[in-house]
From TrEMBL:
Keyword annotations of the record: Cell projection, Cilium, Developmental protein, Differentiation, Flagellum, Spermatogenesis
Family: Belongs to the small heat shock protein (HSP20) family.
Protein's organism: Anhinga rufa (African darter)
Chief location of this protein within or outside the cell: other
A biological process from GO: cell differentiation
SHSP domain sequence ranges: 1-83
Organism classification: Eukaryota, Metazoa, Chordata, Craniata, Vertebrata
Keyword Isomerase carried by entry: no
Recorded GO CC terms: centrosome; motile cilium; polymeric cytoskeletal fiber
Protein name: Outer dense fiber protein 1
Length: 83
């Protein structure tokens, strides 16, 4: 479950503080972008599909966007993420 994974991550991160956990299941790692700007961490996951059928083209698009403010005293250079 998501809560069990979160607990496991929290216990394995010892001195590191976990700022956020996002479920990006169904997205390829290269479809996930993380940027840090103006003391905010922005996570964007975008998935686009295009299928050609007898009736023409169909498009499938989904995205998740989350913005998290950095806690006071944390510099953008300290931010790390993993998928």
């Amino acid at each position: 479950s998501m809560q069990r994974r979160l607990n496991r991550m929290l216990s394995s991160s010892h001195n590191h503080k976990l700022l956020a956990l996002m479920d990006v299941e169904g997205f390829d790692p290269k479809e996930v972008t993380v940027t840090v700007k103006d003391r905010k961490v922005k996570v964007l996951a975008e998935h686009k599909e295009e299928h050609t059928t007898a009736r023409g083209k169909t498009y499938n698009y989904k995205n998740i966007m989350k913005e998290i403010s950095l806690p006071p005293g944390v510099s953008k250079d300290e931010v790390t993420y993993s998928l």
